[in-house]
Amino acid sequence: MSFQLRPYFPPDFSAPALRSAPDAVLRPAPADGVAPENYHAMSIFPEYFKIGGAWHLAEESRMDCVAVWDGTRIDVREFRRLRQGELVVTGRTETGEDGILVHPDGFREHRAAEDVFAFRRGRSRETAFSRDYDELYDLLRHERDHGKIVWVMGPAFAFDHDAREAFARLIDAGFVHALLAGNALATHDLEAAYLGTALGQNIYTQESQPNGHYNHLDTINRVRLHGSIPAFLEAEHIRDGILCACERNRVPYVLAGSIRDDGPLPPVHGNVYEAQDAMRDQIRGATTVICMATALHTIATGNMTPSYRVLPDGTVRQVYFYCVDISEFTINKLSDRGSLSARGILTNVQDFIVQLRKELAP
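^ thats the sequence. predicted structure below, dont judge the formating
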């Protein structure tokens, strides 16, 4: 049975409260990068704004941004992108009173009836995730041909031979449409391909190699000598690994820098806002996002990812967001930061990706 997306149920704008709702109040931005008082901050959910007597859906949204009316449509903008005089939606109610409607239940996810008191309602290390895996297999098979799958990865995958190979196989099989990571994931993946180690440890036996603490620096230095990752792969005759598979399949990857980076590698974005822009460029079209073993990148991506996507034909569809981590803290932190539609899977990410490969790219 093929995967079926949940249908979207828009609000009933013929309901008396919405039919009689006033237009949203628009106020000009008082200065570049500054929103007017009482600005409306966006959520992850579909939001509609009544302007000129008609309700308009914000088609590209992002949490904690503001809604700008450009004369024909709602443009969701980061504060830093505001320009003086642009018309910003104001008002902090969400059910139509101010011409603003937040619509959190458009996909009407099934919720089984439960007793008022029941055990194990949350998702923790005691949760059985078998059903999540089965749903994820079907979803990824569907998305490979009908969506955009974006993966957000920490460096843990580069430390393990099997996990690294498994993800490369998923790339080759078409299950990866973009990759978001940092300098560490790329560095240790390339170190593994170049020297067979990650942070100086053999990626299969985990044994530390003599002088191995130099290996990641030697790898970065060699890439910088060649000038780019593709040039490094070609010059050093490297044919395996995650970034090699990305290059082979023309899968875009964004490497966002951090204050602790070594080197860094040539394509790493050292400017945090350039990195944010590059990440958001990939997230804009994403229909499934899977974040694995990276708390900061996961929360950053979660803040950029709405719960819905408007397709070119006008169809509104759900965005699926998974957080895979061995730590309950990371999964709970993501929800605490507003990504309420994210689904958590608590497991070792290396085992997780190997299991996905066995099912999807045997």
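Residues 117-121 have pLDDT under 50 and may be disordered.
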